[in-house]
Write a structure and sequence with these properties.
The protein has two domains: 176 residues, 3-Layer(aba) Sandwich (Rossmann fold), CATH 3.40.50; 77 residues, no CATH class. It contains nine helices and ten strands. The longest helix has 22 residues. The protein is of the alpha/beta class and 270 residues long. It binds adenosine-5'-diphosphate and magnesium ion. Adenosine-5'-diphosphate binds next to strand 2 and helix 1. The site of magnesium ion (MG) has 2 residues, from helix 1.
C-alpha cells in the first residue's frame, strides 16, 4: 500500500474554540474514506487545512512524501489534492459546457500563469467525455442556474475532478439532495472516481451512504478523531453511536420528514 496523505498532530484553534486537536491520519492510495461527525465537530476544518484553505495552528501534513503545510490552495490542487465545497461553486450564469471548459482551462494553465483561449477542439472533446461520465451530457447547453440541485452537484464535483487529482475531498456531496436521488447521485460520482482510481475522502451525514460507499470511517467529535476504523466496525463503535449516529439519525429523520411527504426510510422495497 502506498501512503498518499500523512497528517500528524494537526491542531487548529479559533480563539478559545479548538476546532482540531491531535489529528493523526494516514491515507493510502485508492482508499474511499467517510468523514462523519455532528455539526461543529471539525470535519470541514480538517478538509480546509489539508486543502490549504485554512492554516493549521500546528502540526504536519505530507502529500506523496512532500510537506504541504502552509501552501496555498492553488499549489495544493496542482500537486494533486482537489476538493468540492458543501455549496456548489459553479458559475451560475454560464452553461454546463462552459463551466467545465473553464475548469479545464484553469487546470491546463496551471504553472503557465496565462490562460489560453477558452475554446479548442481537444478541450471540447475532453469536456464532452467528462459530461458523459458524470451523466450530465443532456444538460450540456443549459445555464447552470436552471439546473436541478442534483445535476448542479454533479457538475460541481465533475469540475473539481477535471485535474484528475490523486485525492479528492468532498464536503457533503449529498447535502440538499432528496432521499430518492442520493444513491443515484453517489453511484455516478463514485463510479467516475473509481475509473480514475482517485483516493476519496468525503464528509457525510447519512449513514446509509457511508455504509454503502466507504470502506473506512473517520469519526470526528469536538475537534478530535474518536474513531478511525473499517466502516462496519466504526458504525457499531460505542463512541460513534453516542456522539455521531445518535444525533445524525435524528437530524436525517427530521430532514426527511420536513423535506418530503412520504420519505419514510426503509420503504424503498415496499
Ligand atoms: N472561520 C472560523 N472562525 C471561527 N470558528 C470557526 C471557523 N470555522 C470553524 N469554526 C468553529 O470550529 C468548529 C468546527 O467547525 P467545522 O469544521 O465547520 O465543523 P463541521 O464541518 O464538522 O460541522 C466549530 O465550533 C466552528 O464554529
Ligand atoms: Mg462542515
Amino acid at each position: 500500500m502506498t501512503v498518499v496523505l500523512e497528517v500528524r498532530d494537526l491542531q487548529k484553534t479559533f480563539g478559545a474554540v479548538v476546532a482540531a486537536k491531535d489529528i493523526n491520519v494516514t491515507v493510502n492510495e485508492h482508499e474511499i474514506i467517510g468523514i462523519i461527525g455532528a455539526n461543529g465537530a471539525g470535519k470541514t476544518t480538517f478538509v480546509n487545512m489539508v486543502t490549504g484553505y485554512l492554516k493549521p495552528t500546528s502540526g504536519h501534513i505530507e502529500f506523496a512524501g512532500r510537506n504541504i503545510m502552509g501552501l496555498p490552495p492553488r499549489d495544493i490542487t496542482n500537486l494533486g489534492i482537489s476538493r468540492s465545497f458543501q455549496v456548489p461553486q459553479v458559475f451560475t450564469s454560464e452553461s454546463v459546457f462552459d463551466n467545465l471548459q473553464m475548469a479545464y482551462a484553469i487546470t491546463e494553465a496551471s504553472g503557465m500563469g496565462l490562460l489560453s483561449p477558452l475554446y479548442n477542439d481537444e478541450r471540447a472533446a475532453r469536456v464532452d467525455s467528462h459530461l458523459k461520465r458524470y451523466q450530465i451530457a443532456e444538460y450540456r447547453n443549459a445555464t447552470a442556474s436552471t439546473l436541478p440541485q442534483g445535476v448542479r452537484k454533479l457538475l460541481d464535483i465533475a469540475m473539481a475532478a477535471v485535474s484528475n487529482p490523486t485525492i479528492l475531498m468532498l464536503d457533503e456531496p449529498t447535502s440538499g439532495i432528496s432521499v430518492e436521488e442520493k444513491f443515484g447521485l453517489m453511484d455516478i460520482i463514485m463510479e467516475a472516481l473509481r475509473q480514475d482510481e482517485t483516493t476519496v475522502l468525503f464528509i457525510e451525514h447519512d449513514m446509509e451512504i457511508v455504509e454503502r460507499y466507504v470502506s473506512r470511517v473517520l469519526a470526528f467529535y469536538q475537534g478530535e478523531i474518536i474513531c478511525d476504523a473499517p466502516t462496519a466496525e466504526a458504525l457499531v463503535d460505542s463512541g460513534v453511536r453516542e456522539f455521531v449516529i445518535g444525533e445524525e439519525y435524528h437530524r436525517t429523520r427530521t430532514e426527511a420528514a420536513n423535506g418530503q411527504s412520504n420519505g419514510q426510510e426503509g420503504d424503498d422495497n415496499a
